[in-house]
From TrEMBL:
Alphabetized UniProt keyword annotations: DNA-binding, Transcription, Transcription regulation
Domain HTH gntR-type residues, every copy: 7-75
Cleavable signal peptide: none
CDD domains from the UniProt entry: WHTH_GntR (cd07377)
InterPro entries, per database record: Bact_HTH_transcr_reg, Chorismate_lyase_/UTRA_dom_sf, His_ut_repres, Tscrpt_reg_HTH_GntR, UTRA, WH-like_DNA-bd_sf, WH_DNA-bd_sf
Lineage top rank: taxon: Bacteria
Record protein name field: Histidine utilization repressor
């Protein structure tokens, strides 16, 4: 039977730092022990400690500020761009808990919304605005306009229990999508719902999707820039 070698010293230090962060012993924004203190604690060289902290910084768990120390970063939630998934599924895939609060659910005749959805001025659209939370922390404001011809029972859904994406995928699966991502300052209402400070930017995803050769929905997704990132691969 092969002998299992112990993990390298730098890897043990990385595991220790991760555990301190994950358990809340070192909360976001706190300064971690200095390299000198970690050298003494683990009985290793300064180079070993430096490598561990450098790799954790590359993983975006830490930020190193010259002359001030090394700080724990706020958790950055993420979403994939390659596949349209329910935000609840995104959150649950990380082992976290999703919840939501419905701010608005209505029928609208807003001309801009009708034009975006390819509807005429004599028709109407559905409009919803929902805040999504991960472990109780707000990470997305979803402002959505919906084609009622494709989703006639949209206003009847309980979106505190079911996400719009889940409902729409079940009723009329999406065929294609187009999207744009920008960095924008939110208005006071969105900033309040996302618990952001004045002047902090949002990452904003504007997405329009099609089903059955019709425009299905136009949605604007607002995310706190300091706590969120998009990712993808192909």
């Amino acid at each position: 039977m092969p002998v299992q070698r112990p993990a390298p010293a730098y890897a043990r230090i990385k595991d220790y730092v991760r555990r301190q962060i994950e358990t809340g012993a070192w909360p976001a924004g706190s300064v971690i022990p200095s390299e000198h203190d970690l050298v003494k604690q683990f009985g290793v060289s300064r180079m070993t400690v430096h490598r561990a902290l450098r790799e954790l910084t590359a993983d975006q768990l830490l930020s190193r500020v010259q002359g001030a120390g090394t700080f724990v970063n706020a958790k950055r939630y993420q979403s994939t761009l390659i596949q349209i998934r329910s935000i609840a599924a995104e959150i649950e895939s990380r082992g976290d808990v999703h919840s939501s609060a419905v701010l608005l659910l209505e029928r609208t005749t807003d001309p801009a919304a009708l034009s975006t959805l390819g509807l005429t001025g004599n028709e109407y659209a559905y409009h919803s605005c929902i805040v999504h939370f991960e472990n109780g922390e707000p990470i997305q404001v979803e402002d959505r306009y919906v084609n009622p011809h494709l989703y006639p029972r949209y206003l009847e859904q309980d979106f505190a229990q079911l996400t719009p994406s889940d409902y729409m995928t079940r009723e009329a699966p999406l065929q294609r999508a187009e999207y744009v991502i920008t960095a924008r300052l939110p208005d006071a209402g969105i900033r309040q719902h996302l618990r952001m400070l004045a002047g902090d930017p949002c990452l904003v995803l504007q997405r329009r999707t099609w089903a059955h050769e019709q425009i299905a929905t136009d949605v604007t997704l607002w995310h706190p820039g300091a706590r969120f990132q998009f990712s993808g691969s192909f």
